[in-house]
Amino acid sequence: MPVFSFLLFVIITSFTPGPNNFMAMAFANKHGMKKTVKFSLGVGVGFFIIALLCSCFNIFLTTVMPIIEFPLTIFGVVYMLYLAFKILTSKGNTNSNNQDKQNFFLIGVLVQFVNPKGILFGITVVSTFILPYYTSYSSYFLFSLFLGMVGIVSTFSWSLFGSVFQKFLVKYRRSFNAVMAALLVYSAFSILVK
Fold first, then answer.
1. Which helix (H) or strand (E) holds 177?
2. pLDDT digits 0-9 by tens, 3-50
3. What is the reported pTM?
4. 69 with 77: CB under 8 angstroms?
5. CA-closest candidate to residue 194, choices 110, 128, 111
6. How far is Cα 90 from Cα 173, in angstroms, rounded to an integer?
7. Domain boundaries of the chain, sorted by first residue
């Protein structure tokens, strides 16, 4: 597995603006860090579940139809290029709809099942970086656990440093997006040249 490309893809996708990170930033501003930590833990658990489901789904597809592995890799590369384009052209909307909810952990878990960025990320990372190189169920579990932990760290850091990131993104949005997009393009093409 191209470890550098894997880590680059995971970090860029997890730490760039998205529903989880914006919600964490908004929750921290409105409800404080204690409740937002619960949300961040919920995001991690939810993404752990999504990553495991993506692993099972992709294992099923590649077992039933081994010929699907190459199209899944191409899908992953195309999605990464699409994501790079979206990051590059992002206008940076930081407004989010905050409603006062009591169970922030459950919100964090459940939002993963309606978060298209997270679901596509799970499918892409599993089909592109994990399944072609690993075959044991324990490795799928460990990678899912790792991805869940990255989800916790990214949402927690957005909540903790939300105001700093928000000011930075407003001031240097184009440069930041260009660098993130270029790194994603590099990561996508490194998958094709195994």
1. helix 162-192
2. 998 999 899 888 887 778 877 877 777 777 888 899 999 999 999 999
3. 0.71
4. no
5. 128
6. 9
7. 3-91+111-192
